Amino acid sequence: MAKFLSILKHNATFPYLFCKNNFIFKRSFSFSSANFENTLKLGGCIIGDEIISGRVKDTNFEFLAKKCYQLGIDLRKVEFIRDDMDDISAAVRRLSKEHDLVITSGGIGPTHDDITYKAVAKAFRQGMAYHNETLVRMRDLFSKNESYNTIPDPVGTEEQVAVAKMALFPEKAQTFFLSPKHCVPAVVVDRNVVILPGSPSFFQSMVNEFLKSYLENKLPGLEINADKSYGSSHGFTCKTLESVLHEPKIASELTMLQNKYSPSGIRIGSYPLWASETKSTKKLTKVVISVEGTSKEIVERCYDELDELIKRLENKYKA
Question: Which CATH superfamily is domain 10-17+36-215 in?
Protein backbone atom coordinates (compact mmCIF):
# COMPACT_ATOMS: atom_id res chain seq x y z
CA MET A 1 0.00 0.00 0.00
CA ALA A 2 2.80 2.41 0.90
CA LYS A 3 4.32 1.88 -2.54
CA PHE A 4 1.12 2.96 -4.29
CA LEU A 5 0.65 6.02 -2.09
CA SER A 6 4.22 7.17 -2.59
CA ILE A 7 3.78 7.49 -6.36
CA LEU A 8 1.10 10.11 -5.82
CA LYS A 9 3.54 12.38 -4.01
CA HIS A 10 6.16 14.74 -5.44
CA ASN A 11 9.73 13.53 -5.88
CA ALA A 12 12.04 15.52 -8.11
CA THR A 13 14.58 18.27 -8.70
CA PHE A 14 14.09 21.99 -9.38
CA PRO A 15 13.82 23.26 -12.97
CA TYR A 16 15.50 25.67 -15.34
CA LEU A 17 13.76 27.02 -18.42
CA PHE A 18 15.31 26.64 -21.83
CA CYS A 19 15.35 27.83 -25.41
CA LYS A 20 15.43 25.38 -28.30
CA ASN A 21 19.10 26.12 -28.93
CA ASN A 22 19.79 24.77 -25.42
CA PHE A 23 20.97 28.10 -24.02
CA ILE A 24 20.04 27.92 -20.33
CA PHE A 25 18.56 31.01 -18.68
CA LYS A 26 18.89 31.04 -14.89
CA ARG A 27 16.97 34.31 -14.63
CA SER A 28 14.75 35.72 -17.28
CA PHE A 29 12.24 38.43 -18.00
CA SER A 30 10.27 39.43 -21.06
CA PHE A 31 11.30 42.80 -22.47
CA SER A 32 7.69 43.46 -23.36
CA SER A 33 4.53 41.41 -23.71
CA ALA A 34 3.51 39.98 -27.06
CA ASN A 35 -0.01 39.31 -28.27
CA PHE A 36 -0.56 35.54 -28.74
CA GLU A 37 -4.20 35.79 -29.84
CA ASN A 38 -4.54 32.24 -31.18
CA THR A 39 -2.33 30.56 -28.62
CA LEU A 40 -3.74 28.36 -25.88
CA LYS A 41 -3.24 30.22 -22.61
CA LEU A 42 -2.42 27.81 -19.81
CA GLY A 43 -2.03 28.27 -16.06
CA GLY A 44 -0.52 25.83 -13.59
CA CYS A 45 -1.08 25.17 -9.90
CA ILE A 46 1.50 23.12 -7.97
CA ILE A 47 0.03 22.03 -4.63
CA GLY A 48 1.72 20.72 -1.51
CA ASP A 49 3.23 21.81 1.81
CA GLU A 50 6.27 19.69 1.01
CA ILE A 51 6.94 21.86 -2.06
CA ILE A 52 6.36 25.20 -0.36
CA SER A 53 8.61 24.25 2.58
CA GLY A 54 11.44 23.17 0.27
CA ARG A 55 11.51 19.63 1.70
CA VAL A 56 10.76 18.22 -1.76
CA LYS A 57 12.00 19.77 -4.97
CA ASP A 58 9.44 19.98 -7.77
CA THR A 59 10.00 18.89 -11.38
CA ASN A 60 6.40 19.03 -12.56
CA PHE A 61 6.67 22.74 -13.33
CA GLU A 62 9.82 22.16 -15.37
CA PHE A 63 8.16 19.39 -17.35
CA LEU A 64 4.98 21.40 -17.93
CA ALA A 65 6.97 24.43 -19.10
CA LYS A 66 9.00 22.40 -21.58
CA LYS A 67 5.95 20.54 -22.87
CA CYS A 68 4.04 23.79 -23.43
CA TYR A 69 7.03 25.24 -25.25
CA GLN A 70 7.26 22.18 -27.50
CA LEU A 71 3.55 22.38 -28.33
CA GLY A 72 3.35 26.15 -28.85
CA ILE A 73 1.18 26.63 -25.75
CA ASP A 74 1.49 29.93 -23.89
CA LEU A 75 2.17 29.01 -20.24
CA ARG A 76 1.24 32.30 -18.62
CA LYS A 77 1.45 31.59 -14.91
CA VAL A 78 2.26 28.87 -12.38
CA GLU A 79 1.29 29.24 -8.72
CA PHE A 80 2.72 27.19 -5.85
CA ILE A 81 0.07 26.65 -3.16
CA ARG A 82 0.23 25.06 0.29
CA ASP A 83 -2.29 22.44 1.43
CA ASP A 84 -4.96 24.94 2.42
CA MET A 85 -8.58 24.67 1.31
CA ASP A 86 -9.22 28.40 0.87
CA ASP A 87 -5.87 29.11 -0.81
CA ILE A 88 -6.31 26.31 -3.35
CA SER A 89 -9.92 27.29 -4.08
CA ALA A 90 -9.06 30.95 -4.60
CA ALA A 91 -6.06 30.16 -6.81
CA VAL A 92 -7.94 27.70 -9.01
CA ARG A 93 -10.93 30.03 -9.41
CA ARG A 94 -8.64 32.93 -10.36
CA LEU A 95 -6.51 30.90 -12.78
CA SER A 96 -9.64 29.46 -14.41
CA LYS A 97 -10.93 32.94 -15.23
CA GLU A 98 -7.59 34.09 -16.64
CA HIS A 99 -6.66 31.07 -18.79
CA ASP A 100 -8.08 28.72 -21.39
CA LEU A 101 -6.82 25.73 -19.42
CA VAL A 102 -5.52 25.16 -15.90
CA ILE A 103 -3.51 22.11 -14.81
CA THR A 104 -3.07 21.26 -11.13
CA SER A 105 -0.51 18.91 -9.63
CA GLY A 106 -0.69 17.14 -6.28
CA GLY A 107 -3.02 16.70 -3.34
CA ILE A 108 -5.18 13.79 -4.56
CA GLY A 109 -4.02 11.00 -2.24
CA PRO A 110 -5.80 9.35 0.73
CA THR A 111 -4.40 11.39 3.64
CA HIS A 112 -5.88 14.33 5.54
CA ASP A 113 -3.77 16.88 3.66
CA ASP A 114 -4.85 15.64 0.22
CA ILE A 115 -7.63 18.15 -0.37
CA THR A 116 -7.33 19.23 -4.00
CA TYR A 117 -10.56 17.58 -5.22
CA LYS A 118 -12.55 19.09 -2.36
CA ALA A 119 -10.93 22.52 -2.75
CA VAL A 120 -11.70 22.63 -6.49
CA ALA A 121 -15.27 21.53 -5.81
CA LYS A 122 -15.55 24.41 -3.34
CA ALA A 123 -14.15 26.84 -5.92
CA PHE A 124 -17.02 26.03 -8.28
CA ARG A 125 -19.69 25.41 -5.65
CA GLN A 126 -20.05 21.72 -6.33
CA GLY A 127 -20.69 18.80 -4.04
CA MET A 128 -18.63 15.60 -4.00
CA ALA A 129 -19.48 12.14 -5.35
CA TYR A 130 -17.68 8.82 -5.69
CA HIS A 131 -16.76 7.91 -9.25
CA ASN A 132 -17.71 4.29 -9.81
CA GLU A 133 -15.39 3.56 -12.75
CA THR A 134 -12.40 4.82 -10.79
CA LEU A 135 -13.35 2.64 -7.82
CA VAL A 136 -13.66 -0.38 -10.13
CA ARG A 137 -10.27 0.28 -11.72
CA MET A 138 -8.62 0.76 -8.32
CA ARG A 139 -10.14 -2.46 -6.97
CA ASP A 140 -8.99 -4.35 -10.06
CA LEU A 141 -5.45 -3.01 -9.74
CA PHE A 142 -5.23 -3.65 -6.01
CA SER A 143 -6.60 -7.18 -6.27
CA LYS A 144 -3.87 -8.11 -8.77
CA ASN A 145 -0.99 -6.75 -6.69
CA GLU A 146 -0.15 -8.20 -3.29
CA SER A 147 1.57 -4.99 -2.15
CA TYR A 148 -1.81 -3.22 -2.22
CA ASN A 149 -3.46 -4.91 0.73
CA THR A 150 -6.35 -2.45 1.12
CA ILE A 151 -9.26 -2.57 -1.32
CA PRO A 152 -11.01 0.84 -1.62
CA ASP A 153 -14.51 0.88 -0.17
CA PRO A 154 -16.47 4.08 0.66
CA VAL A 155 -18.37 2.23 3.44
CA GLY A 156 -15.62 -0.14 4.59
CA THR A 157 -12.95 0.13 7.25
CA GLU A 158 -11.24 3.41 8.06
CA GLU A 159 -8.31 2.49 5.81
CA GLN A 160 -10.58 1.37 2.97
CA VAL A 161 -12.51 4.65 3.15
CA ALA A 162 -9.22 6.59 3.08
CA VAL A 163 -8.12 4.82 -0.11
CA ALA A 164 -11.57 5.28 -1.67
CA LYS A 165 -11.13 9.04 -1.13
CA MET A 166 -8.95 9.02 -4.27
CA ALA A 167 -12.16 8.36 -6.26
CA LEU A 168 -14.19 11.11 -4.53
CA PHE A 169 -14.48 13.86 -7.16
CA PRO A 170 -16.41 17.12 -7.64
CA GLU A 171 -19.87 15.89 -8.58
CA LYS A 172 -20.06 17.58 -12.00
CA ALA A 173 -16.53 16.69 -13.05
CA GLN A 174 -15.65 15.12 -16.40
CA THR A 175 -13.22 12.21 -16.27
CA PHE A 176 -10.77 10.98 -18.89
CA PHE A 177 -8.78 7.77 -18.49
CA LEU A 178 -5.75 8.56 -20.61
CA SER A 179 -4.04 5.17 -20.42
CA PRO A 180 -4.98 1.59 -19.50
CA LYS A 181 -2.12 1.74 -17.00
CA HIS A 182 -3.79 4.48 -14.97
CA CYS A 183 -6.52 3.75 -12.47
CA VAL A 184 -6.90 7.46 -11.69
CA PRO A 185 -8.31 9.66 -14.48
CA ALA A 186 -7.68 13.26 -15.43
CA VAL A 187 -10.50 15.03 -13.60
CA VAL A 188 -11.80 18.15 -15.35
CA VAL A 189 -13.96 20.68 -13.52
CA ASP A 190 -15.86 23.58 -15.10
CA ARG A 191 -14.49 22.57 -18.52
CA ASN A 192 -10.99 23.98 -18.01
CA VAL A 193 -9.50 22.92 -14.65
CA VAL A 194 -7.57 19.64 -15.02
CA ILE A 195 -6.67 17.87 -11.76
CA LEU A 196 -3.66 15.54 -12.01
CA PRO A 197 -1.50 13.56 -9.54
CA GLY A 198 1.66 15.05 -8.05
CA SER A 199 3.87 12.03 -8.74
CA PRO A 200 6.26 13.11 -11.53
CA SER A 201 5.92 9.85 -13.47
CA PHE A 202 2.10 9.95 -13.40
CA PHE A 203 1.95 13.72 -13.94
CA GLN A 204 4.26 13.69 -16.95
CA SER A 205 2.53 10.75 -18.61
CA MET A 206 -0.91 12.27 -18.09
CA VAL A 207 0.15 15.76 -19.25
CA ASN A 208 1.54 14.24 -22.45
CA GLU A 209 -1.64 12.32 -23.19
CA PHE A 210 -4.07 15.01 -22.10
CA LEU A 211 -2.54 17.89 -24.07
CA LYS A 212 -2.12 15.72 -27.17
CA SER A 213 -5.76 14.62 -27.04
CA TYR A 214 -6.97 18.11 -26.18
CA LEU A 215 -5.17 19.79 -29.09
CA GLU A 216 -6.48 17.09 -31.45
CA ASN A 217 -10.06 17.65 -30.21
CA LYS A 218 -10.36 14.06 -29.01
CA LEU A 219 -11.85 14.79 -25.57
CA PRO A 220 -15.67 14.76 -25.73
CA GLY A 221 -17.15 17.84 -24.08
CA LEU A 222 -13.85 19.76 -24.22
CA GLU A 223 -13.87 20.66 -27.89
CA ILE A 224 -11.76 23.66 -28.85
CA ASN A 225 -13.56 26.69 -30.26
CA ALA A 226 -13.52 26.53 -34.06
CA ASP A 227 -12.35 30.17 -34.18
CA LYS A 228 -9.16 29.25 -32.34
CA SER A 229 -6.08 27.50 -33.71
CA TYR A 230 -4.26 26.32 -30.63
CA GLY A 231 -0.73 25.04 -30.60
CA SER A 232 1.58 24.72 -33.61
CA SER A 233 3.18 21.92 -35.56
CA HIS A 234 6.64 22.73 -34.23
CA GLY A 235 5.96 24.55 -30.94
CA PHE A 236 7.84 27.77 -30.21
CA THR A 237 10.89 28.81 -32.20
CA CYS A 238 13.60 30.61 -30.22
CA LYS A 239 16.80 32.25 -31.47
CA THR A 240 19.39 34.09 -29.39
CA LEU A 241 22.31 36.40 -29.95
CA GLU A 242 24.93 37.95 -27.71
CA SER A 243 26.11 41.54 -27.33
CA VAL A 244 29.02 43.26 -25.59
CA LEU A 245 26.73 46.20 -24.77
CA HIS A 246 25.04 46.68 -21.41
CA GLU A 247 21.23 46.62 -21.38
CA PRO A 248 20.71 50.40 -20.92
CA LYS A 249 22.43 51.06 -24.26
CA ILE A 250 20.02 48.83 -26.18
CA ALA A 251 16.84 49.23 -24.12
CA SER A 252 15.02 51.86 -26.20
CA GLU A 253 15.82 50.13 -29.50
CA LEU A 254 14.63 46.77 -28.16
CA THR A 255 11.39 48.38 -26.99
CA MET A 256 10.71 49.75 -30.48
CA LEU A 257 11.47 46.39 -32.07
CA GLN A 258 9.23 44.58 -29.59
CA ASN A 259 6.38 47.01 -30.23
CA LYS A 260 6.74 46.38 -33.96
CA TYR A 261 6.52 42.60 -33.64
CA SER A 262 4.13 42.22 -30.68
CA PRO A 263 1.03 42.00 -32.92
CA SER A 264 2.69 39.00 -34.63
CA GLY A 265 3.10 37.15 -31.34
CA ILE A 266 6.84 37.68 -30.99
CA ARG A 267 8.54 38.02 -27.60
CA ILE A 268 11.94 39.62 -27.20
CA GLY A 269 13.77 38.80 -23.98
CA SER A 270 16.88 40.43 -22.54
CA TYR A 271 19.15 38.48 -20.16
CA PRO A 272 22.15 40.21 -18.53
CA LEU A 273 25.30 38.23 -17.83
CA TRP A 274 27.82 39.00 -15.11
CA ALA A 275 31.61 38.86 -15.30
CA SER A 276 31.82 35.44 -13.62
CA GLU A 277 29.67 33.98 -16.40
CA THR A 278 31.70 35.40 -19.30
CA LYS A 279 35.31 34.54 -18.37
CA SER A 280 35.46 31.62 -20.80
CA THR A 281 34.11 33.59 -23.77
CA LYS A 282 36.31 35.25 -26.38
CA LYS A 283 34.42 38.51 -26.09
CA LEU A 284 32.97 40.02 -22.93
CA THR A 285 29.30 39.31 -23.50
CA LYS A 286 27.12 41.60 -21.39
CA VAL A 287 23.68 40.47 -22.51
CA VAL A 288 21.93 37.66 -24.35
CA ILE A 289 18.83 38.59 -26.35
CA SER A 290 16.19 36.06 -27.38
CA VAL A 291 13.47 36.16 -30.00
CA GLU A 292 10.66 33.63 -29.76
CA GLY A 293 7.26 32.94 -31.24
CA THR A 294 5.15 30.23 -32.84
CA SER A 295 5.85 31.38 -36.41
CA LYS A 296 9.34 30.34 -37.48
CA GLU A 297 9.26 32.71 -40.46
CA ILE A 298 8.42 35.76 -38.35
CA VAL A 299 10.99 34.80 -35.69
CA GLU A 300 13.66 34.62 -38.41
CA ARG A 301 12.61 38.01 -39.80
CA CYS A 302 12.68 39.66 -36.38
CA TYR A 303 16.01 38.00 -35.52
CA ASP A 304 17.63 39.30 -38.72
CA GLU A 305 16.42 42.80 -37.92
CA LEU A 306 17.68 42.46 -34.35
CA ASP A 307 21.07 41.24 -35.55
CA GLU A 308 21.50 44.31 -37.77
CA LEU A 309 20.33 46.56 -34.95
CA ILE A 310 22.85 45.17 -32.44
CA LYS A 311 25.70 45.39 -34.93
CA ARG A 312 24.84 49.03 -35.60
CA LEU A 313 24.69 49.88 -31.90
CA GLU A 314 27.96 48.05 -31.14
CA ASN A 315 29.71 50.02 -33.91
CA LYS A 316 28.19 53.25 -32.64
CA TYR A 317 29.41 52.83 -29.06
CA LYS A 318 32.74 51.36 -30.18
CA ALA A 319 33.40 54.50 -32.14
Answer: MoaB/Mog-like domain (3.40.980.10)
